[in-house]
Amino acid sequence: MGDIAQQFQEVALLLDEVGALPPLSITFARDESSPYVLLATPHQLPLAEGRLAVDQIAALTGAVPAVGEVLFGRYAAWVRGQWANTVIIAATGAAHLPGISDFPERTTTTSDTAQTLRALVKWVGTAAPDVGHLVVADLSRCHSVYAMVPDDSAAQRVLNGLVPDAGYVLHRPGRRYRSRLPTGHLLTISVDPKRR
Q1: Which domain of life is it from (predicted)?
Q2: Could you list the residue range(s) of the whole structural domain that residue 44 is in?
Q3: Would residue 196 count as lying in a domain?
């Protein structure tokens, strides 16, 4: 996954520099030949607002953003650039998808997201060998962490030292787990054999 701890620190620095952004879902994607980080705005956000976030990130990375149709008359904006040693892809969600509920009133900030990434660096360094993709999501009121692992033994290694939430409704041994990280953030682990 490359040096994911370094990626967390670099994205935190990018967020410090870029200024205020809407809530982001930040995916640290495992791709041995070209690891990248995807910063995505929520689907609930109108394209114009999401586009501003993409433009702000594009300005920092020196890349040129694009806009195009992504889903049956729904449009999105995106950009792919480089920040320090990390490939950054910023994209808007396909705005106004039916059935997507509104976000609650936001109490988090972009600065909070940067602080969350920094707080997770130590844990991420130990979990990285077993994780396929890792997502830090700003849910408007708090941040949550989602990890995809290739098998149950990898999930158990990631959970080592954490207390699993066996009462979690979607808790399915061998498929999905939830726990609380030492930072206090919720961690949801999904087992996906395709994420090797």
Answers
A1: Bacteria
A2: 4-191
A3: no
